[in-house]
Structures are given as structure tokens and as C-alpha cells.
Amino acid sequence: MNKRAIIIDDERLARNELKKLLTDFPDIEVVDEASNVDEGLQKIEALNPDLIFLDIQMPGKTGFDLLSELDRTPEVIFTTAYDEYALRAFEVNALDYLLKPIEPKRLADALHKLEEDDKETTVDGEPVSVNRSMLSENDQVFVKDGERCWFVKLSDIRLFESVGNYAKVYFGPNKPLILKSLNALEERLDEKMFFRANRKHIVNLRMIEKVEPYFNGGLLLEIHGGDKIEVSRRQAVKFKEMMSL
Fold first, then answer.
1. Is the pLDDT of residue 202 over 70?
2. How far is CA 4 from each of CA 9, 29, 71, 148, rounded to the nearest angstrom?
3. Residue 190 sits in a domain of what CATH number?
4. Same-domain check for residues 10 and 89
5. Is the pTM for the entire model greater than 0.70?
6. Are strands 177-178 and 75-80 parallel, antiparallel or unpaired?
7. pLDDT-based confidence at 129, cuts 50/70/90?
8. Would the CA dihedral through 10, 42, 89, 20 be positive or negative?
């Protein structure tokens, strides 16, 4: 698997502790480290690592700022003391996140995912292009709206609503906006779980509480939480086939 890694963390002790833990994983070679975002960017550009261990909260710029400035993103494992920031992202698509203090078993699990990803991308030893960005119901997605951040299990999201170039994400009492089109989201979401009801809405099929006939052969879905979503006539045909109504 041999992977070249850079550790980016403003705490020297945290970097040293992680390097010590990584000595148990001979396939991971720590080629450099950085204590802030600007230094991290320079080293990533110069060394082109396969993997970065990235702290989120650092003085000046955050780990998210670093990722937004990269042209090509290596695999990312976040290391953070703040679990509410944690991260499998529509934007970032991080491999994993580790809460500090890092437990050896969690580190092993994260690196195992790296191995699994490698297996997926080869057939008979030949690399193949796969869409590794498909999200499953157990994936947690990072949602940031202004200064607020959430880390939400995909299965807890009941609805995506198009608002111009943005999508409103409905979960619990929250409805933050993310800079994604509904079409881009639809490509990432499992169609067995999320259904494109109409031009403006994607609904979580498991959150549907009631289905009623509606105008012109359409349907009206009542979603957990009380939202009512119209299914266009064309999509209603597909919905009935899927749900065997």
C-alpha cells in the first residue's frame, strides 16, 4: 500500500504522538509535517503526498481553508478535538476523522479504509476509474453554513431543496444551505434511499409518512416533520414502480 503522508497540526506534541502511532504501520511513510495551513500548502505542493493527516482548528486558517485552496486533494484523515466539526463531506469527501487523543484502534480502522479504497480502484492490479464519491446511508456529511458546522448522518437528512445555486438541507430542526446543485447531489446519493420528487426536491424515502394522490396524476408526499412535497406526474410513475404501489 506504501503511502507518503504529511501531518499538518499546530501542536508539536500532537504531531509527535501521531508519528509515534504510525510507526506501527510500515506502509505509511511520514515525509514531512507542518504547523499551519500556509506551510502545509507549500509542502503538499512540493511533495505531492498520497495522504494528509489534517487538524481542523489551527491559528489563522482552518483545515477546511487548506482543502479549499488545493487544486488536487490527497486522501484526507482529519484529526480534531472537536467532534462537531467532523467530516465526511459533500465538499471534502474525507476518508475519515480521528478524535484526539487518537486511539490506536481508530487509527488502524482509518488506515484500513485507505486499503479498501485502494482495492476498489484496481482490477487485476490495473487502476480503474471509479466514482468513489457515492455516499451511503451511514456516511456522515459535513455541512457548513456561515460559521455553523454540522456533521450529519445521511440517513438523518429528510429532504434536499433547490434554492438557486444552493441546496437547503433539512435535518432535525436545521435547514442550512450548501453550495451544491440538486443535480450534483443526485449523482452522489443512493437512489434506493433518495428520490428526486420534482425539479426542486430530493426526498429521503424512509422519511415518507404518507402518500396521497394529487393533481394531474401526481402524488403528494408527507415527510417526517410535516413537510409536504409534490411528486411530478412523470416522477410519480417511477415512484410507484419503485415502491410497488
1. yes
2. 17, 5, 18, 33
3. 2.40.50.1020
4. yes
5. no
6. unpaired
7. very low
8. negative
Which residue range(s) make up the domain with 227? Answer: 156-243
Which of 109, 127, 145 is the C-terminal boundary of a domain?
Answer: 127
Any bridge partners for residue 229, and if so which?
221
Task: Encode pLDDT of 68-121 as tens digits.
Answer: 777 677 788 889 876 555 444 434 556 677 888 999 999 998 898 887 766 654
On whether residue 110 sits in a domain, the answer given is yes
Work out how many domains the chain is built from and give that number: 2
Q: Both 173 and 121 in a single domain?
A: no
58 or 91, which is more confident = 58
